[in-house]
Each structure stands twice: as C-alpha cells, then as structure tokens.
Amino acid sequence: MNGYDPTVKPDFHIIRIDITQYIDPELVKKTGKIWEVFLYNKNSYTHCCETTPSYELGFVDHITEKHVDDETFDEVQQFDHQETKYLHCHVADAYSEGDNKQAHFTFDKDDYEDQEAYGDLFESCIDNERANPTWG
Q1: What 3-state class would DSSP assign to 39?
Q2: Tens digit of pLDDT for each residue in 5-37?
Q3: pTM of the shown model
Q4: CA distance 17 to 39
Q5: Does 4 fall in a domain?
Q6: Nearest to residue 65, comparing CAs of 36, 35, 99, 101?
Q7: Residue 38 forms beta bridges with which residues?
Q8: Per-residue pLDDT tens over the stretch 70-120
Q9: Is the C-alpha dihedral spanning 19, 25, 26, 31 positive or negative?
Q10: Containing domain of residue 44, as a range?
Q11: 2 in a domain, yes or no?
C-alpha cells in the first residue's frame, strides 16, 4: 500500500532509535543511552522519490537509559528532532527483531474512514504513547 488507504486497518508500532553517538559525552555520563521514540503504521508506506518503500514515523519523545533529574531531562528534550521522518521499511523491520514494540491501541473503522480521521487517530496514538510510554 502506498500511503493512506481507508480499507486497511492500521497496525501501529513503536520504534526507538539510539542517538547516543550524536550527544555530548558529558551529558551521556548522566543519562546513559538516549533514544528517539517514533510511532509508525506498518500497514502504510510511501516512496520518497525512490523505489525503496519507507514508513512515515511520527516523533513521540526522547527517553534515557538512566533515571535523570528534571533539569537533565529538560536538556535532553531540547535536542533537535524531526516531528516526521521517513525510514526505509527494511531498516525499521530490522529494528523489530530487536526491541520494536507493537502499539496496542483499540479503534474502530470510523477512526480511519478518511484521511483527516486517520491523522487524528495517529496523533491520538502519539499522545497515548507519551502518557503511557512503552519503555517507561
């Protein structure tokens, strides 16, 4: 499927991508590993000016390996990130052999009957994951 299709039920997954190597080593001493967490629909892909299909990932949050104080967490939250990024399907699928998690959201056909409803559903799932983190 290429992009949104109202006949296919979404299959949302949560993926975390390790960004530790790009972070100041002094901060990493306090946080341990740092990940960006994204939500994506495994039943929807697109082609970004190439033949290799990609998933559209919606940014959820940053998470850290160690429990950190509020000041350090605020520093982590200041990192630049893309609200939406695209990742080749085979790369995202390779993460699923590691610690990719299927997001367990319940929804009805009405929730994705048109593109606007689907967009609202996607945002709602991101909000849900922020409130109830998979790796929390």
Answers
A1: strand
A2: 777 888 888 888 889 999 999 999 999 999 999
A3: 0.83
A4: 11
A5: no
A6: 35
A7: 15, 59
A8: 999 899 988 877 788 899 998 888 876 666 566 666 666 666 777 788 888
A9: positive
A10: 12-131
A11: no
